[in-house]
Design goal:
Helix content is 56%, strand content 12%. By secondary structure, the chain is an alpha/beta fold. The protein has a single domain (6-210), classed as Rossmann fold. The structure holds thymidine-5'-phosphate (TMP). Thymidine-5'-phosphate binds next to helix 4. The site of thymidine-5'-phosphate has 12 residues, from helix 4.
């Protein structure tokens, strides 16, 4: 399936995804695109209920495979009922996390093999892949410090520093392997500087996708 504008935003906790998603939306709206912002896990009624199960502490100790399968169950619903229809109708889809998060958190963080994740990715997504992934990168110290200032920590935010070291390393490794799809943004900088970097990355993406 050809998906010209299926854009995902990734990063560890505290990288500032929400603020930057809003900025990316205005970038595409200025080009007269119709933009849909959505998120994972979530994005549908079923997905938001699964999200609640995944993040809540009443399921502390959930088996790693259960966590993995719930992520993909929510994703299957999201793709079938939201992402694909939006792309088919010509919308630009901006998704707050997607399958790179599964490789990073369930793979890097929990230690599930990438072969196992790839099997589910191929099954659930077919040929659907993001056309651009913006990886907002900060050190784990900065990310956790920023995230800690928000609400009560959820089941992932309760993880230890070394878990997030592995998550971040996995994201960076994936970005190194797929330099055409990924753009790494230094999110430790000021909001203005992060937005400048995003504009440069999005301009490059638009140039390449029109070439
Ligand atoms: P967030 O969307 O508020 O950042 O939080 C969602 C949490 O879910 C975050 O800690 C990352 C985690 N997550 C996974 O572990 N695997 C996934 O595939 C996705 C989409 C999210």
């Amino acid at each position: 399936m050809k998906c010209d504008r299926f854009i995902t935003v990734e990063g560890i906790e505290g990288v500032g995804k929400s603020t930057n998603l809003a900025y990316i939306k205005t970038y595409f709206e200025a080009l007269n695109d119709e933009v849909l912002i959505t998120r994972e896990p979530g994005g549908t009624l079923l997905g938001e209920e699964v999200r609640e199960i995944l993040l809540a502490h009443r399921h502390d100790g959930m088996a790693d495979d259960t966590e993995l399968l719930l992520m993909f169950a929510a994703r299957a619903e999201h793709i079938a009922t939201v992402i694909k229809p939006a792309l088919v109708s010509g919308k630009t889809v901006l998704c707050d996390r997607f399958t790179d998060a599964t490789y990073a958190y369930q793979g890097g963080g929990r230690g599930i093999t990438s072969e196992r994740i790839a099997t589910l990715e191929n099954w659930v997504q077919g040929t659907l892949r993001p056309s651009l992934t913006l990886l907002l990168d900060v050190s784990v110290d900065i990310g956790l410090q920023r995230a800690g200032k928000r609400n009560k920590a959820d089941r992932f935010e309760k993880e230890q520093h070394d878990f997030f070291d592995r998550v971040r390393a996995c994201y960076l490794e994936r970005a190194r392997h797929e330099p055409d799809r990924f753009q790494i943004i230094d999110a430790s900088q000021s909001i203005a500087s992060v937005q400048d970097q995003l504009t440069i990355s999005l301009d490059r993406y638009m140039r390449l996708s029109q070439a």
